[in-house]
Each structure stands twice: as C-alpha cells, then as structure tokens.
Amino acid sequence: MQNGGHEGRKQQKRKGRIPKLRFYGDQFVLDTVGGRFYRLTPIAGSLLKALIEGRNEDQLAEIVEKQSGGDHTRATRDVEFFLSEIRSLDLVDDSGP
Length: 97
Description:
It is built from four helices and three strands; from the N terminus they run H-E-E-E-H-H-H. The protein is of the alpha+beta class and 97 residues long. The chain has one domain. It has a three-stranded antiparallel sheet, with no helix packed on it. The longest helix has 17 residues, at 72-88. It is globular, with a radius of gyration of 15 Å. The relative contact order is 0.14.
C-alpha cells in the first residue's frame, strides 16, 4: 500500500530534483519543480553541471582550483559552502555528495 501522506509526497517531490533543473546559457538555471530562476557565477554553473554529472566533492574542488587558481584547501571550503547553499535552496536533497 502506497503512503499517501505528507511524507510520501515530500519524498516523491524531492526524488530526482537535480534533473528538474533547466539551464539557460551558463548564467541562469530554472528549478522546474519550484518555479524559481537562479543566476549563477561561472564557477557555480560549472559546479552545478558537474554535480548533475555525478562528480564527487573532490572532483568539484578540482574544478574550483582550475577555474579560480586557488589552493586545494580553499577550493574544498568553497565546495562545502556551495553544496550547503544549494541544499538550503532545496535544489538537491541531503543524500547528494
């Protein structure tokens, strides 16, 4: 028997959230579930696309290092902040990288 309660709807809504993003160029993304547009920095756009492709946190940090010329420690912190931000916007679920 399928759970028709609120929790069941929430899980169904959250499942597959990343593929529900639609990119418009490199600077804008639409959350087709939530109906909101977001403007992205070039690095944030690269990270979000890489996350969709299944890249892990270390791979995301490498992208930041290459694009910003920063060191690995700072790139790792930047990735952690980025992931925290997109989770707070409910663009990905908590089971992501």
